[in-house]
Design goal:
By secondary structure, the protein is mainly α. It has one domain. The chain is 85% helix and 0% strand. The longest helix is centred in the middle third of the chain and has 17 residues.
């Protein structure tokens, strides 16, 4: 089982990356939708 603190760090890192790459993510979603 993964420690809760590690899950929080991964979630925060994912949130920061998705905010930083919002344009790339929308383009990615357009390609697959």
């Amino acid at each position: 089982m993964v420690p809760f603190e590690v899950l929080i760090m991964l979630f925060v890192a994912y949130y920061v990356v998705t905010r930083g790459m919002r344009a790339d993510m929308t383009l990615f979603l357009k390609i697959f939708n």
